[in-house]
Backbone:
C-alpha cells in the first residue's frame, strides 16, 4: 500500500510539473497573440507548448524522450483516425445545410480558391474538387507539423500519466476539460465583446471532450501518438479549411457552424458515447 501511495504521489507531481510548465510557456505565447499580433507564427508557437512541456518534464524527472509512444505497429489506426473525423464533420455540415443553418456553396470562397490555384478559367465544380483534394491530402500532411506539437504533449504524454491513476472515462474527461481550457483565451480573443461568447465556449468544450474520448481510445488501442496527430490535423483541415469556408452563412449560422457552433458538439458527443462503450467492452 505504501508503495502504491508513493507511486500515485509521483504521478501527481509529474502531472502538476507538466501543467505548470505548460501554463508558463503558453502564457508567453498568449501574451504575444493578444498583446502583439495574433499571427499564425505565434499560434504555431502556442501549439508547440504541450510538446515542449512534455520534453522538459521528462528531462526533469530523468525519463528519456524515447519513452513516449513514437512507434506505430498497426497502420489501420491511421486509416481510422482519418476516417472518423471526416465522417462526423460531414454529417454535421450536411445537417447544417439540410436545416438551413447555412447553405452549401460559398461563391466568395470558390473565387478565392480559383485565384489561389491559378485556375480562374475553370468552372466552380472543378475548382472545389481540386482544392478539397489538395487540402484533404497535402493540407492534412502539412498541418500535422502543428498538431503534432499538441499531440506529443496531450496524447503522447499527458493521458498516459493520467492512465496510471484514472479509468478510461476519467482520463478522457479530465484531459478533454484541460485541453479545452487551454484554448479558452483564443475563444475570448475571437469573440471579444460578443454577447454569445458563453454559447461558443460551452459548444467548443463539449466538442473537445467528445474528441478527447475518441482520441484517447485510438491512442490506447494503437499505443502510439501518431493516430491522434493525424486525427487532429484532419479535424482542423476539414472544418477550418473545407466545410466552413464552403458554407454560405445567414443570421443564425454563427450558432451552428464551425468548432464554436452547436452542431459539431452534438455529433461528436454521439460518436464519443459509441467509443466510450467500445473502450468499456474492450477493458481499456
Residues:
Amino acid at each position: 500500500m505504501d508503495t502504491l501511495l508513493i507511486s500515485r504521489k509521483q504521478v501527481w507531481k509529474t502531472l502538476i510539473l507538466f501543467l505548470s510548465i505548460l501554463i508558463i510557456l503558453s502564457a508567453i505565447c498568449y501574451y504575444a497573440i493578444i498583446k502583439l499580433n495574433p499571427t499564425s507564427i505565434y499560434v504555431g508557437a502556442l501549439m508547440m507548448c504541450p510538446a515542449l512541456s512534455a520534453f522538459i518534464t521528462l528531462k526533469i524527472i530523468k525519463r528519456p524522450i524515447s519513452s513516449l509512444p513514437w512507434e506505430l505497429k498497426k497502420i489501420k489506426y491511421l486509416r481510422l483516425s482519418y476516417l472518423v473525423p471526416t465522417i462526423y464533420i460531414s454529417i454535421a455540415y450536411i445537417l447544417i445545410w439540410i436545416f438551413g443553418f447555412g447553405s452549401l456553396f460559398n461563391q466568395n470562397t470558390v473565387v478565392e480558391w480559383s485565384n489561389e490555384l491559378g485556375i480562374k478559367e475553370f468552372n466552380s465544380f472543378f475548382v472545389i474538387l481540386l482544392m478539397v483534394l489538395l487540402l484533404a491530402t497535402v493540407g492534412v500532411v502539412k498541418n500535422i507539423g502543428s498538431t503534432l506539437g499538441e499531440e506529443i504533449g496531450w496524447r503522447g504524454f499527458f493521458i498516459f500519466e493520467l492512465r496510471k491513476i484514472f479509468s478510461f472515462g476519467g482520463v478522457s474527461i479530465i484531459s478533454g476539460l484541460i485541453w479545452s481550457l487551454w484554448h479558452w483565451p483564443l475563444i475570448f480573443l475571437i469573440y471579444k465583446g460578443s454577447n454569445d461568447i458563453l454559447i461558443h465556449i460551452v459548444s467548443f468544450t463539449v466538442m473537445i471532450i467528445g474528441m478527447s474520448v475518441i482520441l484517447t481510445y485510438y491512442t490506447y488501442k494503437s499505443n502510439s501518438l501518431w493516430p491522434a496527430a493525424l486525427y487532429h490535423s484532419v479535424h482542423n483541415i476539414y472544418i477550418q479549411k473545407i466545410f466552413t469556408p464552403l458554407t454560405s452563412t445567414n443570421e443564425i449560422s454563427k450558432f451552428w457552424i464551425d468548432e464554436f457552433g452547436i452542431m459539431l458538439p452534438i455529433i461528436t458527443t454521439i460518436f464519443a458515447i459509441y467509443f466510450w462503450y467500445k473502450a468499456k467492452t474492450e477493458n481499456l
